[in-house]
Each structure stands twice: as structure tokens, then as C-alpha cells.
Amino acid sequence: MAKNAVITGWGYYAPSRVLTNADLERIVDTTDEWITSRTGIKERRIASDGETTSTMSVRAARAALEKAHLRAQDVQLVIVGTASPDYLFPATACLVQAEIGAMKAGAFDVEAACTSFISALAIARGLIVSGVYENALVIGAETLSRLLNWKDRSTCVLFGDGAGACVLEATNASVGIESTVLHGDGSKGELLMVPAGASKLPASADTIERGLHFITMAGGEVFKLAVKSMADAAEEAIAEAGLSLDDIDVLIPHQANIRIIEGVAKRLHFPMEKVFVNIQRYGNTSAASIPIAICEAEATGRLRRGDKVLLVAFGGGFTWGAAVLEWFGAHDGMRPPSPLERAAQVLEDVVERVRPA
Q1: Which neighbouring-strand residues pair with 192?
Q2: Quick one: CATH architecture of 1-338?
Q3: Are 82 and 52 in contact, with CB atoms under 8 Å apart?
Q4: CA pair distance 151, 119, nearest whole angstrom
Q5: Which of 54-58, 185-189, 308-312 has the lowest mean pLDDT?
Q6: 285-344 residue pLDDT tens
Q7: What is the reported pTM?
Q8: Mutual orientation of helices 219-240 and 258-268 as an angle, nearest 10°?
Q9: What is the gyration radius of the CA atoms in the chain, in angstroms?
Q10: Tell me, what's the pLDDT at 337?
Q11: Between the CA of residue 69 and those of 131, 205, 335, what are the distances in Å?
Q12: DSSP string spanning 14-53?
């Protein structure tokens, strides 16, 4: 079996429609100064009428597959992390799988709110390292604009739409994902949720009248829990990888709020100049924020081959998690191990186990 799972392709899609803070001033009681000072957001992308979580996922997926030089028909697994799927079912991953032509692939969604991408990454890594699959397409995508109450200035200024994707492949090389950690605390779920629209409170005239299909959030409580949880998960993932904070070259956090990002960096005693931030352009895109940030960090030269990268997120549920990886970068012919290579690795492992101490 493979020693590791490595990111060999990446891509993202952001809707063309830009909603600025000045635009929001005209529809809700807020100001650019208020939004910027409290969130760091200047603008966000909003899906057009013809765009959905699945259509944006397809755009990101195709870009990632092209970067990895992997044909859709050779993809073995598609996972979409999202809190805003096209439907309760079928899974958005199934819609993506069909649209891109990955007809040999298994497909399912992961819903852990803003932690969905890291959760999907951890699952894909485990399945690849264990030998079940040799590659996986992992997507984080959201159309949160359709879950917003545009009269609630505490939430509608925060979120945006978009999608990001990564291709993971098996490798016997040392590069790749070195650790993943996932945590949750369902006892505080009511602090950040969409109350209605599923089986407990199905759609009705009453739930619609009461606005229960929109995102609700207790911002202050979420802030405090997010900073501590993300910092704790980061330290745990770094320790599991056998590294220290000094070894980390780039921190790519979930882009929830600039104050949360700065709070995590301060708690970790990690320099902000090594933190990648793009929240000012996209707002909080939930599950899409980390893969979009990965793409932009690579495109701007912030990610270089050999860099140790820390990913960390916090989301409704509550859920939180982190991952540490060594960045491989552009595809240079790295492919999954051949059957002969896998057999040789198995033999090597057996010899190592029986070798006298």
C-alpha cells in the first residue's frame, strides 16, 4: 500500500458577480467601515441564477484534474464537502461525478459545515493510504448566499459562494499529507445553524414565515470557541506530524473572519506574515475557503515545493480540524505506484517487521 497521499492537482471557481460592502450599504443597515473593521471583508462573490454548488464544483474539479493530468474516467472517488448541497439527495458528489464523466468513481458528500473540506481530505487520505483507492477528487463548495437573510446584517455581510478542488493520489514518496485531526461538539450546535428545511422542521408556511431557513449565529460565542479550537487542532496536527510550529512555512486557515484568523495566529505565537489571507476578496465561503486559498497561495508564489503547510478550520456543529502536508506542487509525472511497486513495498514492510531488533 502507499505510504502517503499527495495533492497533485488543484483548481477553483468563483462566480463573476461581485457584491461589495458599498453594495450592502444600500440593502442593509451597515457600512463599509463596520464590515471591514470587524471581519476584514471588502467584497464577496455571489452565484448567478444558473449557478449551483454542483456547477461550481464541476468548474473547480475540471481545473484540478487538468493540473494533475488525470482523466475524469480514471478518477476512483469523488467527495464533496458542503453545507449547501443542490439537494438533500442525490448527493452533490454524484451530480459532479456524472457531469465530469467519472463513471468509475464512488461518490458521496461530507457535511461538517466550514470544516467539510478538511474532513473530506482526511477521509480521502485514509482511503488512499490504506490501499482502498489510488486517487480521489476532493471538493469544497458552497452556495451560502441562498441561505442568508439579507435583512440580518450580522450574517449577510459575512458569506460568499465558490468552489475549490484538489486531486489526491497515492505515492510511495515522503511528500504529501502528514497528519489530519478532526473534532466535534454537538452540544453547542444551536449557536450556528440553519434551523429548518430538513426532517426535524420540514418546509412549511410557518417555517418560511419565521425565516427558519436562514443561517443563524451567535457571533460572540462562535468567535471564542473558534479561536481556541482551531489553535488546539493546529498544535495537535503539528505534533502528530512530528513537527514544531517553527517547521511550518505557511498557515492556510478557514477564512471566516480576520479577527478569528489573527486570534488563532496570536494564540499559536505564529507570525501573520506566514498566514495566507484572502477573506477580503471572497468573504466566508465555508467549505470552499481552504481549497480556494490553496489555489491562490500557489498562484501567488506563497506555496513552494517542500513547504510544510498547515490547514485549519472551524464550523457549525460544532466541528473543527487541521491537517499538515508537505507541498509537492506542479505534477512532474508522479503517478500512483504500479502493482509491482506495491508488491515490492509490501515485501519491504514484511521484511522490516521480521527483522531482528
Answers
A1: 217
A2: 3-Layer(aba) Sandwich (3.40)
A3: no
A4: 32
A5: 185-189
A6: 999 999 999 999 999 999 999 999 999 999 999 999 999 999 998 665 455 444 444 455
A7: 0.91
A8: 40
A9: 20
A10: 46
A11: 21, 49, 10
A12: --SEEEEHHHHHTTSS--HHHHHHHH--SEEEE--TT--H
* Interatomic CA distance for residues 42 and 37, integer angstroms: 10
Active site residues: 114, 254, 284
pLDDT over 70 percentage in the chain: 92
Helix (H) or strand (E) run with residue 170 in it? strand 161-171
What single-letter DSSP state applies at residue 336?
Answer: P
Task: Kindly state the cell numbers that stand for 271.
Answer: 507570525
Distance CA 283, CA 268 (A): 23
Distances from the Cα of 123 to the Cα of 5, 141, 201, 347, 348, angstroms: 11, 17, 30, 26, 26
| DSSP H stretches of helix in the chain | 21-25, 32-39, 53-68, 92-100, 116-129, 153-156, 205-209, 219-240, 258-268, 279-282, 289-299, 339-354
- Burial label for 60, CB within 10 Å (0-12, 13-18, 19+), is buried
Q: Record the cell numbers describing residue 250, joined without a space.
A: 505557511
For CA atoms 204, 207, 209, 213, the dihedral sign is negative
List, in order, residues 6 or more apart from 187 with CB less than 8 Å away: none
Q: For residue 50, what is its C-alpha cell?
A: 444558473
